[in-house]
Amino acid sequence: MTKVGFGTLNWVVLVVYLLAMLGVGVYFTKKSSKNTDAFFKAKSSIPAWAAGFSIYATTLSAITFMSTPEQAYLKDWAYGVGSLSIIIIVPILIKYYVPFFRKLQVTTAYEYLEERFSPIIRVIGSALFMLYHIGRVAIVIYLPIIAITTVSNINPILIACVVGGLCIIYTFMGGIEGVIWSDVIQGFLLLGGALLVVLIGGFSTKGGFGTVITDAVANHKILSSQDMNIGDLTRFLPLIFAGQFFNTVYQYTGSQDVVQRYQTTASQKETNKSLWTNAFLALITIPLFFGMGTVLFSYYKNTGSLPNNFNTSALVPYFVITKVPAGIAGLIIAGIFAAAQSTIASSLNAISSCFVTDFKQRFFDHKWKNISDVTLARIVIIITGLFGLGMSIYLLIGNASKTWDLFLTVTGLFGVPIAGVFAVGIFTKRANSFGVILGLICSIAVTVYVQQTNDSSLIVATVAFITSFLFSYIISFFAPKKYVHNIVGLTASTVNDKYVKETH
Question: Which residues contact 177 (CB under 8 A, 6 or more apart)?
């Protein structure tokens, strides 16, 4: 397939965007350098709406920006049903999870696990998060670049270094406040980019949006009877909803990059507003991102044509580069990179907060007195960022993505079980560290088995959460008394009770 030139005007727009992100980091450098409260929590000064945008941009990667329209183009909107789970999850977060994170004044989510269970559970949760997100940075850089460069003459190594490198720099300088305000800009950009694709694609199709709607109905592009066929688990709506529900629960309860935002607002009331802002944006994503795929299906059915043997993972960038006017195309491609950068920046800042808070401050504070926590956090950002960037370049050069996918699959298997650990700690009184450690091991073993025998990631997520919760709870009944901790103020039934944090 002949590659398309990116164009001078598109380059200008993309460079302006990247320099603007760098400017945000520079602007917040002085404020973020004061202490870890500023670097990791922004001194709880972020407006609720901005925190909500940041949560949204963090959870939406460039991979989602391109894979969701591809899903709608090839099949239908069935996976959009999973996004509706946020309506159920937000009230649960507000009532049962956020109060504990706010009450304990945690910097990382895993501090709750220590108070509720033991230091070893905190270490396990934090280490698994760090390991997975170090690997995820590489993939988040690699996948959108490989998709865009399959249809354009952009140099993949150059764009990886520029997009990834500048992201590392502004995260290094601006701390979480710089990351959040970058997320806000990036959130508007990626939503605007998606809307432009829908509008330009729809109006460019012969017959306009009338044709798009007719094609969507005639070809069952919204929902179809196949979506309730239990024989095809990849499209079975109840499983899609359940799997996405448990994946989302992990993101919002056990994943530091999102939980970190809960402490950046002034009060729990403001945190609650930020979560509802994020929920609203997540719901907008359904018609926008799935709509892109439906519009492009109708466009290429009636008006344009795709090259032979076209890789549909590059569907959106191909349409943008070949059909969207110069300048606007650069803006939309910037939106794709914005989605990537928001995820990368959040991961890097969250990794540094885990390393400094859960390891350095908790276990080695007396040994590492010669280096400030903010300086150490910035060193961690540089090291992990460069490692992720280096890995992405290696993947671009060596096409070794299958090996890296295996790494992410293995480390990713540990994510949802950790959400089960948070849930069993909050919703039961019986759970203790003995039961949780053994339960986590059993859950991971079952999850690995299910993952090897089933192709559906949604089944894996569902099994991972449920088995983690049940194993941890049941095994806790057999724990020696020494593993039973004080839980007053740390469970759903005692959420309003005062908890005095133990000194370590």
Answer: 28, 31, 32, 38, 42, 45, 46, 264
Asked if residue 483 and residue 390 are part of one domain, the reply reads: no
CA dihedral 457, 387, 250, 499 (to 10 degrees): 160
The pLDDT value recorded for residue 454 is 73
Longest CA–CA span in the chain (Å) reads 73
Whether residue 105 sits in one domain with residue 140? yes
Same domain? For 48 and 159 the reply is yes
Q: Does residue 406 belong to any structural domain of this protein?
A: no
Q: What is the pLDDT of residues 198-207, one digit of tens each?
A: 999 999 998 8
Judgement on whether residues 225 and 372 belong to the same structural domain of the protein = yes
Residue 4: exposure state from Cβ atoms within 10 A (0-12, 13-18, ≥19) = middle
The pLDDT value given to residue 442: 93
Same domain for 351 and 424? no
Report d(CA 363, CA 366) in Å as an integer. 8
Among 400, 423, 448, which residue terminates a domain? 400
Token code pair at residue 236: 């079975």
Which residue range is the domain that position 466 belongs to? 413-504
- Structural domain contains residue 407: no
| Residues 454 and 460 sit within 8 Å (Cβ to Cβ) | yes
- Domain co-membership, 184 together with 291: yes
In a domain, 308, yes or no: yes
Helix axes 156-204, 8-27, angle to 10 degrees: 110
Q: Is residue 457 part of a domain?
A: yes
Residues 247 and 122 in one domain: yes
Per-residue model confidence as pLDDT tens digits over 64-115: 788 889 888 988 888 888 889 999 999 999 998 888 888 888 889 999 999 8
Domain boundary among 375, 400, 425: 400
| DSSP code for 456 | -
Q: Same domain for 311 and 275? A: yes
Q: Of 502, 471, 492, 468, which is closest to residue 125 (Cα–Cα)?
A: 468
| Cβ atoms 426, 96 nearer than 8 A | yes
Torsion of CA 109, 144, 247, 463, to 10 degrees: -120
388 neighbors 138 (Cβ within 8 angstroms): yes
- Give the number of domains in the chain: 2
Question: Quick one: pLDDT at residue 2?
Answer: 63
Cα angle 355, 361, 362; round to 5:
95
Tokens representing residue 301 in the block: 């059915």
Q: What angle, rounded to 10 degrees, do the helices at 208-218 and 291-302 form? A: 100
| Alpha carbon separation from 12 to 16, 19, 121, 335 (Å, rounded) | 6, 11, 49, 14
Cα separation, 316 vs 318, whole angstroms: 5
Is 133 within 8 Å of 411 (Cβ atoms)?
no
